[in-house]
Amino acid sequence: xxxxxxxxxxxxxxxxxxxxxxxxxxxxxxxxxxxxxxxxxxxxxxxxxxxxxxxxxxxxxxxxxxxxxxxxxxxxxxxxxxxxxxxxxxxxxxxxxxxxxxxxxxxxxxxxx
Length: 113
What we know:
Layout: E1 4-7, H1 25-38, H2 54-75, E2 81-84, H3 89-96, H4 109-112
Parallel strand pairs: 1-2
Helix pairs in contact: 1-2, 2-3
């Protein structure tokens, strides 16, 4: 049987979507590492006011997607396929190992695997 990780695009965001990630060690690590790369705490980006900004929405969806996939990968084999709609293509590419940042930032899971 084949497996697929699918990542949503803009419109799937909701206020507080990153808050649950701090409960999981891999989610917390992803938030901290992404925050270090960006030089800011991402937890301030998922409130209703901040999510009025496309930047905040896209960062939240990227980080939430990567963190969720990292959590799944701790308990399961890698997926056979990945897919992403719009901004969801970025976490899909990260999980597939096809995309890293120009500076090879450590928080990208394909670099940490």
